[in-house]
UniProtKB/TrEMBL annotation:
It is an enzyme of class 4 (lyase). Transmembrane segments: none annotated. Binds 1 [4Fe-4S] cluster. It comes from Limosilactobacillus reuteri subsp. rodentium (strain DSM 17509 / CIP 109821 / 100-23) (Lactobacillus reuteri). InterPro entries: DNA_glycosylase, Endonuclease3_FeS-loop_motif, Endouclease-III_FeS-bd_BS, HhH-GPD_domain, HhH_base_excis_C, HhH_motif, Nth. This is Endonuclease III. NCBIfam families: nth. It catalyses: 2'-deoxyribonucleotide-(2'-deoxyribose 5'-phosphate)-2'-deoxyribonucleotide-DNA = a 3'-end 2'-deoxyribonucleotide-(2,3-dehydro-2,3-deoxyribose 5'-phosphate)-DNA + a 5'-end 5'-phospho-2'-deoxyribonucleoside-DNA + H(+). SUPFAM superfamilies: DNA-glycosylase. It comes from the Bacteria. DNA repair enzyme that has both DNA N-glycosylase activity and AP-lyase activity. The DNA N-glycosylase activity releases various damaged pyrimidines from DNA by cleaving the N-glycosidic bond, leaving an AP (apurinic/apyrimidinic) site. The AP-lyase activity cleaves the phosphodiester bond 3' to the AP site by a beta-elimination, leaving a 3'-terminal unsaturated sugar and a product with a terminal 5'-phosphate. Pfam families: EndIII_4Fe-2S, HHH, HhH-GPD.
Length: 213
């Protein structure tokens, strides 16, 4: 297991390697960012960005989406995985925003997680990106990097990973660390064929050392 100092050092190396790391979802309002984040589940940000301009133009406000059937949304998002379920989520979430939150995206974890299709990760992303509220979203990239580097135990839950990273990293650096770990997972510590041989964190990574033997 890495020590707290080693975890912070690892994040520093990731940030130095990818100083441009940040959200790659494109949205013009908090509401549209929420929709894009829901759509990004099991889809790449690039694929989401390709379909959202038409979706956002057709449904600029929560009330616009709240008044239609999911079948009317499906043609706009059918290129994404699980698009039928996602269409239902978007409509239901929009209805909840209209009826429960006066048409505004809520800005607490508890309230966000009452929305259809919004779990802890989506809620954390919205809090951090839209409202500058410290949060540490844990997605598949963050989970993989944390487990492989032994920031946590190999079978640690998402919640355990989140708590460990939040405890180890200062709150003002949570969002940057989140983005740095995502980029590390996308381009270095990839799901398949990770670049262990050239990874600057190899001296700290037992998983990587085992891979290059």
């Amino acid at each position: 297991m890495l020590s707290p100092d080693e975890i912070r050092y690892s994040i520093k190396v990731m940030r130095q390697t990818f100083p441009e790391a940040g959200t790659t979802l494109i949205a013009d309002t908090n509401y549209h960012f929420l929709l894009a984040t829901i759509l990004s589940a099991q889809s790449t940000d690039q694929s989401v960005n390709e379909i959202t301009p038409a979706l956002f133009a057709r449904f600029p406000l929560p009330a616009d989406l709240a008044g239609v059937e999911p079948a009317e949304v499906e043609p706009y998002i059918k290129r994404l995985g699980l698009y039928r379920n996602k269409a239902k989520f978007l409509v239901k979430t929009s209805q909840q925003i209209v009826t429960d939150f006066n048409g505004e995206v809520p800005h607490t974890l508890k309230e966000l997680m009452t929305l259809s299709g919004v779990g802890r990760k989506v809620a954390d992303v919205v809090l951090a990106e839209c409202f500058n509220i410290p949060a540490f979203p844990v997605d598949t990239h963050v989970s993989r990097v944390a487990r492989r580097l032994r920031m946590v135990e190999p079978k640690a839950s998402v919640l355990t990973i989140e708590k460990k990273l939040m405890k180890t990293i200062p709150p003002e650096h949570w969002l940057d660390a989140h983005h740095s770990m995502i980029f590390w997972g996308r381009y270095v510590c990839t799901a398949r064929n990770p670049k262990c041989q050239t990874c600057p964190l190899l001296p700290l990574c037992v998983t990587g050392q085992n891979n290059v033997i």
